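In line with agreed milestones, the collection of sequences with tokenised folds has grown. One record among many is set out beneath this paragraph:
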Amino acid sequence: MKYINANKVLPEKLIVEIQKYVQGETLYIPKPETEYHKWGTSSGGRRLLDHRNAAIRNSFISGNSIQQLAKEYYLSTETIKKIVYSHKK
């Protein structure tokens, strides 16, 4: 995260108003909620995990055991259980 000097981007009246509450501190101003993206949507990481989890569910339905899947995907048996017993399709 890079920091920007408020004097360079905010009107003086707004700076004076903010200084009533905070002075000489770092202040984080979040994006509006409409600008948020779910984790992994920009990088494609979420899509990769969804594909992996679907493959794990299909393998489980095809008869592979939780222990086999844990070894194959390098995950704990508890994580495999969460994936195969979730209702997400």
Summary: The CA atoms of residues 9 and 80 lie 49 Å apart. Helices lie at 6-9, 12-19, 45-61, 66-73, 77-85. Residues 45-61 form the longest helix (17 residues). DSSP finds five helices and no strands in the chain.
